[in-house]
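User: I'm writing a tutorial on reading structure tokens. Could you give me a worked example: one chain, its sequence, then its tokens, then a sentence or two explaining what the tokens reveal?
Assistant: Sure. Here is the example chain.
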Amino acid sequence: MITTSLSIFIAATIAFTGLTLGIANSKHFLVLDRLLQRRLFVRDEKPISHFLSVILAPKMLVLWDFILAAGLILHGKILAAGWALATLAFADLCGIAVKHLIKRQRPYNHADNKTGWSFPSGHILGATTMIIIIWILLGSQLPAALLAGLIIVGLTLAFARLEAGAHYPADLLGAALLALACCSISVFCWTNLPIIFA
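And here are its predicted structure tokens:
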């Protein structure tokens, strides 16, 4: 029986693979992505964009994940805390592996091209993963407005990364798809843990 999380994993993985192949093999795709980036790139990074890029940087997201895990442990949810930490770590490791496999250069108009590879965006990968983790673990306990606010923050971060010239649009989409794939397979493993280790 294919569960919802496994179905999401398969769909996200297929979409991510298609996007990755487009980036790696299609000059037409790269031209379109560059054109979109140039259209969306604003040479004037707003303070809120810079603020979000700092507090939602990949290393900061690890800190936020540990704070979430500590709160879960204080409420007696030790397995959920471990799952939250393992899920972000898994997503980050997958993102690092893809970055080194694809080796996509950052846009030419980025302030510092020596800050790493562009695809997928580490900021968006981590932020999307954290939003999904929070939604899965606390979604039923949080007001809908707060969950909507998290999504708005994620979208604002995506525009901030474009605004800074740090990424192409496909880098952001790829990061969100990879986060969805990593979280869904993590949920599948977590819910089937007794079966997997039996």
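What the tokens reveal: The mean pLDDT is 84. The first helix runs from residue 4 to 25.
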